[in-house]
Amino acid sequence: MTGPMSQIILATVEDGVLKPDREIGLTPGTKVRLTMELCDDAVVQAGLACDELDHLCDESPIDARGTKLTRDELHVRR
Question: Domain residue spans in the chain?
Answer without folding.
Answer: 1-61
